[in-house]
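#structure-requests
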Amino acid sequence: MVRVGLTTERLVRAGAELADEVGFDEVTVSALARHFDVKVASLYSHVRNSHDLKTRIALLALAELADRGATALAGRAGKDALAAFANVYRDYAREHPGRYAAAQLRLDPETAAASAGVRHAQMTRAILRGYDLAEPDQTHAVRLLGSVFHGYVSLEMGGGFSHSAPDTQETWTRVVDALDALLRNWPAA
């Protein structure tokens, strides 16, 4: 018998909140069952296993990030769009560290193709249209931006910059400035 009030969506949202509290790696069906004070078996009518739960949390995080990105980009172009998009990732990671970690989960190709991850790539390419990059340079730039955003955020969240000056916000601003300058002056192949 399915416990009244438990739905797949409610479980996924609770799993996302749990990820933010204890870390994405610690989210399991068992942990979620303890959270709801139910038997593990009662959750299997909603999620197949811990991997399915984590995949669903990843999809939720990607959708939330895409929605924030779309809102932040509306009416912006060039460096303003680049900075807004970069800040969405950094702010989301700070507010939702477990969900941000979930957004990095490697999805199978079919799931990835149907996910909000596609929207992220489309938004990044929309930003890059303002820099007049053609293929394959546009793909190189998408990879560069993702690497820099994720790398900086991961190092910052891991405490990698906590013991040195200048302030991490100042560095972040300089990183975005440097990316803008690089994109405006993209090197020829």
